[in-house]
Design a protein that fits this description.
By secondary structure, the protein is mainly β. The protein is built from two helices and 32 strands.
């Protein structure tokens, strides 16, 4: 740990100690930064039985800034404990940001692969000049402190037809080979994913790339590759996709393709499918839990969107991660559902049939079985509705104050039979048809505004925690 690291550590601790007590929108279950700004989940893993989540963290300002890795741990994916800031931009090769990356666990060692961002000041376009994206390995022997950092690759080591934008390494091991994917932008402004291999985690060889002709954006961030239920998934967060009807309505997208064949030769098959149709979801990453579950966490936020406000900035922090979601394949579709541990979180339950009108707890879940049509109003200004004759599920803020400027998102859905709504103080995650479609948003109810109105032919379970 160098002197800069020590100084920052002290400053961050002081900042956390001084944080204000009034914090009405802090979630109970979700990962949020103690102070400052959070974005992408990083280095998700289970190490010595404990779940670890790191995240992009700008501790000094709620509006963002220099990126560190914040860290928290959990025994059950729901109770998270802040563990400090193990990775800092404290070396010449990562001095303008310890950007996103992943974890690989081998025996009792945690290997963290990440991007060291460098941005020169001057008259640059910051696409082909003015910036460096280095690939770095940080090694931890205890899961909470970094013992050594090593520069593995610079822009010189990446293919020549790429811009300076190459980042977000995701690493895994299969048989006796290590694999790494990185997101990249070509000089033709096409988003691609690069595949590297290594025998020792330190020396990497570029093998090939995954790409798709068509309007899939100029840059693919935060790639992930995993096998699930016999299929291989390529998950990417493209920048630059144009809105097409109800699709790609956010500033940037996150979604998946399937890969056909062995990763060495595989090509993208089929269409891009968005992972979340709400307002706040980006840069998801997954990991394999010890029990074999593939678990995904995303950033519940969206970069570069000025028209959406987050009221927590007034309380000194901004953004959170999604609930960890178990992934599975059903009828060829990747489904996301809250981790099963959530069932044990609730200790109060109320069954109802038909409509419901009343108060709700700030942290609660609604599990609904739907006959045909349904309309739900949360906090007097967030409407979730579906009419089978129209065939579109809508998430609409009729109260723009409640949604901090968010408006409306929709998705074509042939039939709606089930719905889970997870509310955690200032977030709403809606899982439709057993996780086939998901809508995620932040919202900011006033204290007395935790209310719900459900109308339709519905059977429901309301769960909360006392
Ligand atoms: C995605 C991203 C990554 C980058 C990180 C920086 O949100 O832009 O590509 O590593 O955020 O914070």
């Amino acid at each position: 740990m160098n002197a800069l690291h020590q100084t920052w550590e002290k400053l961050i601790e002081e900042k956390i100690e001084k944080k204000q007590q009034k914090d009405p929108y802090r979630p109970m279950l979700h990962i949020a930064p103690p102070v400052g700004w959070l974005n992408d989940p990083n280095g998700l893993c289970q190490y010595q039985g404990v779940y670890h989540a790191f995240y992009q963290f700008a501790p000094f300002q709620a509006e963002g800034g220099l990126k560190f890795w914040g860290h928290c741990t959990s025994q059950d994916l729901l109770h998270w404990e802040y563990q400090g800031v193990p990775l800092m931009p404290d070396e010449p090769y990562d001095c303008h940001g310890a950007y996103s990356g992943s974890a690989l666990i081998e025996e009792d060692t945690m290997y963290l692969f990440y991007t060291g961002n460098i941005k020169f000041s001057g008259d640059y376009d910051y696409i082909t000049t003015g910036r460096e994206n280095n690939t770095i390995l940080a090694v931890s022997q205890d899961g909470s402190t970094v013992a050594e950092k090593e520069l593995l690759m610079t822009n010189q080591d990446y293919p020549k037809d790429l811009t300076r934008h190459v980042r977000d390494p995701k690493v895994w091991k299969k048989d006796d080979t290590y694999y790494m994917v990185q997101g990249a932008r070509t000089t033709e402004n096409q988003g691609v994913v690069l595949l590297f291999t290594s025998k020792d985690k330190r020396n990497w060889t570029y093998l090939r790339r995954y790409k798709k002709e068509g309007a899939y954006g100029y840059m693919w961030e935060c790639p992930d590759v995993y096998e699930i239920d016999g299929l291989t998934v390529l998950s990417v967060s493209p920048q630059g996709m144009k809105q097409e009807g109800l699709h790609y309505a956010n500033c940037y997208q996150s979604g998946i393709f399937f890969l056909e064949g062995d990763v060495h030769l595989a090509e993208i098959t089929g269409e891009f499918r968005e992972l979340d149709r709400g307002f706040d979801f980006y840069a998801p990453q997954s990991f394999l839990a010890d029990d074999g579950r593939r678990i995904q966490i995303g950033w519940m936020g969206m970069p570069d969107v000025e028209e959406h406000q987050n009221k927590t900035v007034a309380d000194g922090w901004q953004n959170m991660l999604t609930i960890p979601r178990e992934l599975s394949i059903r009828d060829g579709i990747l489904c996301q559902n809250p981790v099963r541990e959530l069932e044990d979180w609730w200790n109060q339950i109320f069954f109802f049939e038909g409509s419901y009108d009343g108060k709700m707890e700030p942290c609660c879940e609604w599990k609904l079985t739907i006959e045909k049509d349904v309309s739900i109003t949360l906090s007097e200004g967030l409407v979730l509705r579906y009419q089978e004759s129209e065939g579109i599920f809508w998430m609409e803020f009729t109260d723009h104050e409640l949604g901090g400027g968010r408006t409306i998102r929709g998705s074509e859905i042939k039939a709606l039979s089930s719905m889970r709504i997870l509310i955690d103080v200032s977030s709403v995650e809606v899982f439709l048809n057993d996780g086939t479609d998901v809508f995620t948003t932040r919202f900011y109810p006033k204290k007395e505004q935790y209310t719900v109105n459900i109308s339709g032919n519905v059977k429901g379970i309301y769960c909360w925690h006392l």
